[in-house]
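Take a specimen:
=====
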Amino acid sequence: MLIDVTLPQLGESVAEGTISKWLVREGDIVKKDQPLVSVATDKADSELPAPAAGRVSKLLAAEGQVVPVKTVIAQIEEGVGPVAPLSISPGPPLSILPPPPAAAPAPVASAAPATPAAAPQSARAALATPTVRKVALEHDVDLSSVQGTGERGRVTRDDVMRAAGNGESSGPPVVEVRPPAPPPSRAAQIAQLVNGGGGFVPPIPGVGYGSFKLPAYRPASGDKVVPFTRRRRLTADHMVYSKFASPHVVTVAEVDLHRASKLRDAHKERYKAEGMSLTMLAFVVVATARAVRENPSINARVLDDAYVMFHDIHIGVAVDSPDGLVVPVVRRADELGVRGIVRAIDDLAKRAKSGKITIDDLSGATFSVSNPGLKGNLFGGAIINQPNVGILRMGEIQKRVVVVESPDGEDQIAIHPIMYVALSYDHRVVDGVAANGFLWRVTEILEKAEFDV
């Protein structure tokens, strides 16, 4: 029985994947859960296991091809194992392939003894599917002498028929199973509407818009052209889509981190001794998770004609990796204290930098936090990580002169660490009142610094 191997849903927002490399060939015998293919997405790279043991019957997608999820990319003939070696007595070598059908005897051109194993041996050296090998035997075609036109030099049925000098097969036609074309996604329908409906002409990247045209690039000495990597291209497409789909609004708050900094200084050595790093990012994530729980409209995503507010709070934290910025997810962040958040962020950051991050680690965020690191800037409005409706971006922490109120009620001048935080939110479903209330609550939690460390 043929078992279809389909491209699964590799993450909540992943609609397609790129076939990076096939780890098996047609005709290979595989075990259940044996890796079949490496698939790359905008989240991460992963290997798909075999759903059953058997023989790889067909590979229906080429390396480098982009295929939608739920597409059949291969077929496995279940239950077919390796061919056991024949036990025979000494004598002339025998072929283990089925003999060709009976035909009229041809004139013998030479009296030399025949070597029946020679043709099958050369046929086995060619790259061809079992079906093609059968067609070659039926038409007495030596596969080793056929120039393959298929993928990686694979000999196809058409190649065999051309070598046989016959345009059609005398046997039943070989029907290649192709997966049904998936219906166009909602995003594709919107893109088609935008690109071809209503007379609207969108800007063309690298070309221009309307009467405005970009000047042609003229190479100069010392210039370096850097091709987009797959990850950079996917990131660019994600950012363009987010700006196109979500009406971004940015609001900024100033946070006095005097108490939070003192709390961190009092405990950071203890965390360091345990192999963890107590950073201000951990405090921000804790404050964000609490504020999200109190302001559920910020913990949502937009559907076609509705929106859903999530119950669970999963905070995506942007970190750097060798392939670019990735956003691993801290699950149920509102249920974790400072220690739990620190441990989760440390683990995710280490695996991201070592290239061991998984698709599950990068999927399912309901809100995101972006940290520019030590070499940050005053503040900035981040682009929303789709399909979220909000992202909080931390700014640089700087010591500034501030006015504080003393215990006796008098105003005083002091030097405190100050940070600006900027909230980018999707104005389709998040109103200004809700966004401002959320950001005000984040600021209040950080300034009070009532954390259990």
